[in-house]
Amino acid sequence: MALKGGYMGLCEVDGLKIRVSNFNVNVKQEVQFYDHIIGLRDSVPIGLSTKGDVGALNVQKYFWRPGTKICTGGFSFPATVENLQKTFDLARSGDDFTLRFNYACDDVERTFEFCKVNSFTFSVSAGEIATIQVDVMGRLMDETVGSNPYDEAQKLLTWDAVKITSASSNPVQMFNFTVNNSCLPIYTAGANNTSDLFPKTIRVGMQSVTGTIVYYIRGIDFEDLNNDSTFDTIKIKIEDPCGDDFDETLCVIYKPIERASSLKALLHTLPFVGVGKALGTP
Fold first, then answer.
1. Cα(143)–Cα(103) distance, rounded to whole angstroms?
2. Residue 98 and residue 113: Cα distance in Å, rounded?
3. Residue range 49-72: mean pLDDT, rounded
4. How far is Cα 255 from Cα 232, in angstroms, rounded to an integer?
5. Using CA atoms, how far apart are residues 136 and 114, in angstroms rounded to an integer?
6. Most buried of 84, 142, 145, 151, CB within 10 angstroms?
7. C-alpha to C-alpha distance for 87 and 17, rounded to whole angstroms
8. What is the largest CA-CA distance in the chain?
9. What digits encode the pLDDT tens for the residues 243-277?
10. Closest C-alpha among 198, 203, 204, 197 to residue 181
11. How far is it, in rounded angstroms, from Cα 229 to Cα 91?
């Protein structure tokens, strides 16, 4: 058996090449079966004194059809300012984009068309690099011979570059937020139906934003942050010496404060939910 060296794959999101750490987007399709009456369902072997035994196995799965198709799955990658801005904008707007992946660098390339971001998660912890998880839903897929690999140096986002401004001035130990677009595939019948069982379109549902900030020490009063008539803005700013900065604001309301005590550093967990135009204007 021959072993092939090199990278396992190369990803391209809306024209931007991203070094992913995991990629698992595939076409999903199930075969549908239907129950029906065909007589005795007796599969007891010949020789046993069982009423109705004829020694035959009556196969039940005669009526079947191929199910509908959908391209779903996710991929994750370490964040840079460029790929963070690109995927965040696609999640915020719900726009269509093309997703490509070269398996084993150049053996096989799959192209997923008319994709939408179903969910987007940005996460960073003190002392670590920032990471992004994107789950997508697409309409069509095509498989061809792969293209050549690329080589481009990119600086990853470390915690010191991520500036979080929120309700508290205490040091932040961890920050994450998730955008969920609740995408729904739309299948149509008759003359409007596609001939390949893929969906006619993908609809973006009600967008929601959730997340968590974890602070060192206390310093946040319960009453100040749990008044349901108030909301706050969380500003995320990342300076990029090689290009445009990432500068976005989340409009949120905080959930009840979670307090915990341990022998380790005292951490203060503050979950939040987006309100109004939580992500601003695309």
1. 11
2. 5
3. 69
4. 12
5. 10
6. 84
7. 12
8. 84
9. 678 999 999 988 877 666 767 777 778 889 998 88
10. 204
11. 28
Q: Rounded CA gap, 123 and 131, in Å?
A: 5
* Residue keyed to tokens 């750490």: 21
Task: State how far the Cα of 7 lies from the Cα of 156, in Å rounded to an integer.
Answer: 18
Over residues 216-230, the mean pLDDT reads 58
Domain boundaries, the chain: 9-31+55-274
- CA geometry: angle 263, 268, 272, nearest 5 deg: 150
Both structure tokens of 134: 């994107």
**More reliable by pLDDT, 40 or 265:** 265
User: Could you read off the pLDDT of 77-107 as tens digits, one per residue?
Assistant: 999 999 999 999 999 999 999 999 988 766 7
Between CA 199 and CA 184 the distance in angstroms is 10
HEC-encoded secondary structure of the chain = CCCCCCCCEEEEECCEEECCCEEEEEEEEEEEECCCCCCCCCCCCCCCCCCCCCCCCCCCCCCEEEEEEEEEEEEEEECCHHHHHHHHHHHHHCCCEEEEEEECCCCEEEEEEEEEEEEEEEEEECCCECEEEEEEEECEEEEEECCCCCCCCCCCCEHHHEEEECCCCCCEEEEEEEEECCCEEECCCHHHCCCCCCCCEEECCCCEEEEEEEEECCCCCHHHHCCCCCCEEEEEEECCCCCCCEEEEEEEEECCCEECCCCCCCEEEEEEEECCCCCCCC
* 127 Ramachandran zone, left/alpha/beta (phi>0; psi -120 to 50): left
pLDDT tens-digit profile of 110-166? 999 999 999 999 999 999 999 999 999 999 999 888 666 566 677 888 888 899 888
Q: What is the pLDDT of residue 1?
A: 44
